Amino acid sequence: MTVNELKEKFISRYGAGEFHGFFSPGRVNLIGEHTDYNGGFVFPCALSFGAYLFLRKTDRKSVRFASLNLPFETEVKLEDLDKKVGKEWVNYPIGVFAQFLKKGVKFEQGADILVFGDVPNGAGLSSSAALEMVTAIAVNESWEIGLDRLELIKMSQKAEHEFAGVMCGIMDQFASGMGKEGHAIFLNCDTLDYDLVPVELDGIKIVISNTNSPHKLDSGMYNLRVSECHAAVEAISKYKPIKVLAQVSWDEFLQLEDKIENEAARKRARHVISEIERTEEAVKQLRAGNIEEFGRLMNGSHDSLRDDYEVTGHELDTMVDEARKIEGVIGSRMTGGGFGGCTVSLVKDEAIDTFIAEVGKNYELKTGLKPAFYVAEIGDGAKRLF
Ligand code: GLA
Predict the structure, then answer these.
(1) Fewest Cβ atoms nearer than 10 Å: which of 119, 124, 191, 343?
(2) Catalytic (active site) residue 172
(3) pTM assigned to the model
């Protein structure tokens, strides 16, 4: 849907008059998976699709929420903007309003809100972070609250913790908030220092393959991984006091690995610590123009997520295995939280048609699911549209 079409939808629902539009993108992570909540590096980029939010302030003492994607709509009193509404999608925007209330912001006026998302839901491309971030910038600008972008990113992450129950790291909200067209974000999730690295892939495209197996990134499995990492930190701390796994180098890990008695904790730590080094190396290689090496590291990332972090599963593994069989594929891996969702592959231009045809056919044969493919465009982070 175009912005003009969305405007019309807003007017036909809420009537004519002044209102404003905002957008915040989904993201694809090129490498650095499950490292963010361990203080490590990530390397995501913002996509050209994401979440749109149109907002008009009103004199009512409530906020009306509606979506063009899902039928549920509701009206919430201003004083209830910190309360969950069942398991509905509105918990993402309400979770963000709640963070403003926590900061002492007093909403005197209500609003009419219409949202629309073109990120496939549950595909591991951060549809939820996009919705949180677009709410955060829309509220911040519409009520002239004046918080800076980083604060809004942190508030969006908090909304995810408190209203969706997923104890996520900061990568998704950061990528959605800070993305820049043509660039990936090399982010140190401990210090939040970051570099925008140009992604100039001559004759190569980033292809996202959706397994169409909804990522079961329910709080359960994700939060379990988070706690297994905490267990590894605790075990290692008996020998070297650390707060996050990122404080352990790969060489140190090799010395300490046998001392982590719990097998799950040991494997999770092995993935995280190796992935942090792979990510740093991958960015170095990309900067040096060694794209083949970058692809090799992407493959290593997937294998580690499959064998040690155990977050891939039949669909993601099949998609990656089939992709790697195609000549002209530089690298392929799962992206996002895992357990379904999408893979990301670097594919030479001339191989893209074959990739889509062959991987599509073989994946469907092996899983019974019809996949979807998108050639990614790296877009800008959250912004006001009008
Ligand atoms: C989800 C989380 C992120 C990150 C990734 C895995 O997308 O929201 O914070 O942990 O999984 O890298």
Answers:
(1) 191
(2) yes
(3) 0.97
